[in-house]
Amino acid sequence: MAVRDSKKQILLKNVNIFDVDKGIFRSNQDILIEDDLIKEVGKDSHVGEESPMEIDCSQKFALPGLFECHAHLTILINQPDEVKREILKECGIENNGQELELEKEVLKEFAREGITQIRDCGGPVKTLKTLKDEVSQGEYVGPDLFYAGPMLEKSPLTGEGNNKRWPGFTVAVNSKQDAKNIIEQISNEGASLVKTFGKFDIDVFKYLLDEAKERNLPVTHDPGPTFFHSVPMDRGIDLGIRCFEHGKSPWYVILQDDLKSEHDSLLEADPVTKEAFIDKMFSIGRESISMTKLKQLIDKMANRSVYFCPTLHVFKHYAEHPEVYREDELDKFKKRFEIMYEISCLIAKEVMKQDIKILVGQDGWNPRFTFNEMKLLKENGLSEPEIIKGATIYPAQWLGIADQFGSISPNKKASILILNRNPLEDIQNMKTAHLVLHNGKIVFQG
Ligand SMILES: [Zn+2]
Question: Which residues are within 8 A (CB) of 33 and not within 5 positions of it... i.e. 6 or more apart?
């Protein structure tokens, strides 16, 4: 094979490569990288005029660079200094006391941990575009960003509070014209997906889905606060949505018949009456669920090739640290997050038994939490190969970018995580990075 002088080549030698189709490692392979792309994968096929830089990776384990599938990166921006320091500490990033550019430090840490792509599920689109541009122009090291921009919902906005600190975090969609405008805007600002949340008028919602499809933007849906969903999961699947966020999202759809009737009789009730019903569901907990209905919903998910991102970490995290979420009524919120975690695990476990593609997402901004999500998915029954696929090929497929990302194959981006230990033996071995390449550049070497 002829090599042009101007091309920068790296040869990773004698490495075990994760095969995302078979879910196993192919032993003792070489990976030839040229500039930002994988050129060849195999053995002894590279005879260049100029010898590439060689790195021996004997006994190591190569994975495609990982995706974090549910982040909210813009929360790192506009934070007071004391919060910035707290977040850095939580992320395990050393702070030398200089002026902090938190988002840059954290993005760099994501990449260094081998998380070379992020799917961001909600935040101001202009801020996200700036981050993406800065990373792609090489101003600092960070993952490739694929973002939704604002969370979209009918007024009044559930997350209106976020707009004070991060204007444009959540945007109202009250008419077809609103839907048309926002999809056009986020598409022009480089969005890769659409995030719908909570309430919608159904005709506006359908119109929004059509507009998104027109612009090739896949839609992921969070039905919103627990119960009283205007686009519940089963309806969402019928309307064509192919990804849902949060393990607890099906809860309303799978209520026992009597509880579902009671719920539906309260659709027009006042907020206090609705809240009393919600309280009752949280006190009944898992007994409120019909396993038959859950299985029916999962069959529907399987039939329509729906992806599911359980974000188990976030519920466990807030159950253990309710003060991060709320300043008042701590006990109530702690209890609610404990139940949401329990319900999410119960639902995720059943979903995992079918051939549903699970995405690894933390619902936050901390590289460490991606690995914690993997640990929780494992504890709830997801196999190691499926966890790895849920952070590599599945998000690449869902985003429609599997021609460039998601596996170690010729012509894909040379973003590769090389581990010292085998993650199929213990998913915690994902944290034993030896070498990380992002678009052909070494961003971490242990
Ligand atoms: Zn989220």
Answer: 9, 10, 11, 12, 39, 52, 414, 437, 440
